[in-house]
Design brief:
Helix 2 crosses helix 4 and helix 3 packs across helix 4. By secondary structure, the protein is α+β, with helices and mostly antiparallel strands. It has a single domain, classed as Gamma-glutamyl cyclotransferase-like (Hypothetical upf0131 protein ytfp, Roll). Strands 1-5-2-6-7 form a five-stranded antiparallel beta sheet, with no helix packed on it. Strands 3-4 form a two-stranded antiparallel sheet. A two-stranded antiparallel ribbon has the order 8-9.
């Protein structure tokens, strides 16, 4: 079994795996259209996290695929089903490794459809940035989620520019600088 990380699963891998591969899936775009009331926000003040939105077949979302040992599959699925309980569901997709000598293969992703109760939907990036800067949940500040994801994308696929993510990160850091006068921790 393989699992695709395109959000917090890129930097917060809290399950056992035996191999990871950088690559992409097609036909989706990564967007901060999902509310987080259990990790990066609260029910009263939800944060924003990513989900995948279906779009043009040739679009790509880069991330990391994790191969789960046969003996760990049940435990990892139970763990991820609980971790991703805020509106996410499992789906099978085809993963395309960035390394060209590995053929595409089927894997599992967690995505939140637009009919789940935590779906926030599209909004102006300034509005999303304001929400991110002002949201904190049990897993920490929503700012950390945005900045960690941007940092991981620059690290694992430095040649790929995720405009939605990097523009949001810039807006979040700009708001943080206005509020605190400093954002050196990010």
């Amino acid at each position: 079994m393989w699992v695709f990380g395109y959000g917090s699963l890129m930097w917060k891998v809290d399950f056992p795996y035996e191999e990871n591969i950088v690559g992409y899936i097609k036909g989706y775009k990564r967007r901060f259209y999902q509310h987080s009331t259990d990790h990066r926000g609260t029910p009263e003040n939800p944060g924003r996290v990513v989900t995948l939105i279906p779009c043009k077949e040739d679009s790509k979302v880069y991330g990391i695929a994790y191969k789960i040992r046969e003996t760990d599959i049940e435990d990892v699925i139970n763990h991820l089903d609980f971790r991703e309980k805020g509106g996410y569901e499992r789906k099978k997709v085809v993963f395309h490794p960035k390394e060209h000598d590995i053929p595409p293969f089927e894997m599992t992703i967690y995505l939140a459809s637009d009919d789940n109760p935590h779906y926030a939907g599209p909004a102006e990036l300034d509005e999303i940035a304001f929400q991110v800067v002002n949201s904190v949940g049990p897993s920490g500040p929503n700012i950390d989620y945005v900045c960690n994801l941007a940092k991981m994308m620059r690290s694992v696929v430095p040649d790929v520019h995720d405009d939605h993510l990097f523009t949001l990160e810039s807006k979040v850091l700009g708001l943080l600088e206005k509020q605190n006068g400093d954002f050196n921790n990010y």
